[in-house]
Amino acid sequence: MMDGKIALIEAGGTKFIVGVGDASRQIQARTRIDTTRPEETIPAAIDWLRQQGGDYAAVGIASFGPLDLDRASPQWGHITRTTKPHWSMADVAGPFARAFTCPVAINTDVNGAALAEWMWGAGQATNSSLYLTVGTGVGGGAVVGGQLVHGVTHPEMGHIRMPRHPADTGFEGTCPFHGDCLEGLAAGPSIIARWGASLSDLPSDHIGHRIIAWYLAHAIATFQAILEPARIILGGGVMESPGLLARIRSEAVEAAAGYFAGRPQEMIVPPALGDSAGLLGALALTLVEGHPHSAGAKRQ
Ligand code: ZN
User: For position 54, what pLDDT does the model report?
Assistant: First the structure.
């Protein structure tokens, strides 16, 4: 257990939520800073953290990505290629490390949430859980045996290739890199592109509900085949659409064609941490520091 105050940063594409917490999960203060340019947003976050006392035992950053998390790389802690203006190759971790001279843990917001949900939320007391967020994009993080699954950097589970729903032919998909990957077929922008409204705003008998549930159930079948997680946690704005979780559960068994281990009602679940998931994700990343592949923590 780590003593002392921990600086927490949820670095999102539209806003940074910055907070001060501790290992007991108390968030003592928090603020919101608009995400503009790195040279404005990051110093504003550092200034606010200094105003809260500034003496931190660790800094945890759960950031939008993609991120370079290879600790041997000179660009460790930088955002890499992003379509967000001004932020390609932005150094996110470095300014905090220089300002506070304490260990900095950084990972994606998705991996932070995956870890926090496993530690304290819907994946608690399991040996493995998969967290998928379906919103403006699709992201996934997996915890197996207490560690985030990593290669040279974080997985990009939203970009797996997908089979086509028979009633969804002719749609090119909205992923700027792949077209009709999972994200290109099931994230919010793909729903708007096909049907002109979000899933929540479509009538309950609209075929869009069945198509999106079908894609997510088939993605789950793929992730199950690779990871066999004990829990599959589905979050993000699209998942707030009424009835979607139930449709995915009922499609999942068929999509896995005999290989679904367990009962979908118990395994496919919503997140449990609510509004604090971002900051708790940043906190979780600092608490697993020292596990070489778990959080990408680095002492500067
Ligand atoms: Zn893609």
Answer: 83
Residues 154 and 195 in one domain: yes
Question: Distance (Å, rounded) from C-alpha 255 to C-alpha 175?
Answer: 23
Centroid of ligand 1 to alpha carbon of 160 (angstroms):
7
Give pLDDT < 50 ranges for the chain. Answer: 290-300
- What's this model's pTM, rounded to 2 decimal places? 0.93
Whether residues 98 and 127 share a domain: the answer is no
In the chain, how many domains are there? 2
Say how many C-beta atoms besides its own lie within 10 A of residue 241's C-beta.
22
CA of 18 to the centre of ligand 1 (A): 29
pLDDT value of position 289: 59
* CA atoms of 80 and 58, how far apart (whole Å): 24
Spatial strand order of the sheet with 104-108 comes to 27-34, 15-21, 6-11, 58-63, 104-108
Q: Tell me, in angstroms, the distance from the centre of ligand 1 to residue 138's CA.
A: 9
**Whether residue 264 sits in one domain with residue 165:** yes
**Residue 62 Cα to ligand 1 middle (Å):** 21
CA of 133 to the centre of ligand 1 (A): 14
For ligand 1, the distance from its centroid to the CA atom of residue 23, given in whole angstroms, is 36
Domain membership of residue 135 as a residue range = 122-269
- Model pLDDT, residue 261: 81
Give per-residue pLDDT as tens, 209-265.
Answer: 999 999 999 999 999 999 999 999 999 999 999 999 999 999 999 998 888 888 999
Token pair listed for 116 = 């926090």
Rounded to 5 degrees, φ, ψ at 162 are: -125, 150
- The predicted pLDDT at position 1 comes to 57
Here the tokens at position 155 are 């997985």
Dist. CA 219 → ligand 1 center (Å): 13
Give me ligand 1 centre to Cα 179, in Å.
6
Q: Ligand 1 center to residue 161 CA distance, Å? A: 8
For position 295, what pLDDT does the model report?
A: 41
